[in-house]
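Subject: Sanity check before I submit

Could someone independently write out the C-alpha cells for this chain? I want to compare against mine line by line before I put it in a report. The sequence has 300 residues.
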Amino acid sequence: MSQKLSPVTALLLTVPPLLWAGNAVVGRMVNTLVPPITLNFLRWAVAFVILLPLAAWVLRSGSGLWAHWRRFALLSLLGVGCYNALQYLALQTSTPLNVTLVAASGPVWMLAIGALFFQAPVRRAQIQGAVLSILGVLVVLSRGDWAQLMAVRLVVGDLFILLATAFWSWYSWLLSRKDEPEAIRQNWAAFLLAQVVFGLGWSGLFAGMEWGLTDAHITWGWPLVSALAFVAVGPAVLAYRCWGLGIQQAGPAVAGFFANLTPLFAAIFSAAFLGELPHAYHALAFALIIGGIWVSSRQR
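---
Independent answer below. Compare away.
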C-alpha cells in the first residue's frame, strides 16, 4: 500500500477529525436528550436512509455482500457498533479532558496493531511522529500548563475510550485489506452501506440492552433532530468516506496521526462556543501535530 502523503490525501484525512470534533461537541450537547448507545443507533439509522438510494443494489443476493458477511459483520462491529457507542458512553462518566487524552493513544495503537497482526514494519520516523503528535495533544489538553495533567484521574469512562480507540485502529487496518468484491470496494456508498446494514444489527442490539438495563428515555424536539442530522451526514457518512479513501492512499499508520487533530479542532470549537480567543498554545499544538504527521509520512 502507498505511504505517500499528497495534499489531496492530507485533506481527505483532515476532514474526519474536523467532523469528529463536531461530533464530540454535539454529543455532549444532547447527552440529556438521548441515551448514548441509543444515539449511536439512531445516528446510523439515519445514515442508512441516506445511503440506501445511492447503493440499494448492494442488498441484492448477487452483489457479494452476503457471501462476505463475516468481513462486513466484523467491520461493522468495530466501526459502527462499538466505536462511537463507547465514545458517547465514555462521556457519561469521564471528562472531555480525560477522554481526549486517552484517545491520543491512537497512533500508538495503529503502530502496535499493524506490527502485531498485519506484519507492518514500524519505522523510526513513525515513532518520532507519534511522540510529536502526542506532545501536541498534551499541549492542548494542558492549555499550556503542564501542572493540569498531573491532576488527571482515570475513571471507567477512560477505559471505554481506550477500548474504542483500539477498536478503531483495528477497523482502520482491516479497511486497508481488499477482501471484498471489487464492485463493492470501488463504490463508496455501497461499501459503507454494506457495513451499516450489519452495524444496525449490532448497534440495535446494544441499544436494546441499554433500554433493558437502564431507565433510558428520549426527549424529542428540534435540538435532537438537528443533532441527528449532523452526526449522520457529517461524522458518519462524510467522515467515513474520507477516512476510507485516505487509508487506501496513505495507509493506516500515517492516517492514524491525523486523528490527533480531533482534540485541537475540539479546542477551537469550544473556544468559539465560549467566546474565548485562541491562545499561543493552540499554535504550538498545531505545529507539533502537523510536525508529527509530516515526520511520520517520511520514507525512512
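---
OP: Matches mine. For the report I'm noting this point. DSSP finds 13 helices and no strands in the chain.
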